[in-house]
Amino acid sequence: MKVLVTGAAGFVGFHTAKALLDRGDEVVGLDNLSEYHDVRLKRARLDILRDGAGFRFVQLDLADRDRMAELFAAEGFRRVVHLGAQPGVRHSIAKPFPYVQSNVLGTLTVLEGCRHMEVEHLVFASTSSVYGANTRMPFSVSQGADHPLSLYAATKKSGEMMAHSYASLYGLPVTGLRFFTVYGPFGRPDMAVFRFTRDILEGRPIDLYNHGNHRRDFTYIDDAVHAVVALLDRPPQPGTGLRGDVPDPSASSAPYRLYNISAGQSEELSRLVEIIEISLGRKAIRNPLPMQPGDVHETWGDIAELEAEIGHRPATSLAEGVKRFVDWYLGFYGVGS
Question: Is the pLDDT of residue 149 over 70?
Answer without folding.
Answer: yes
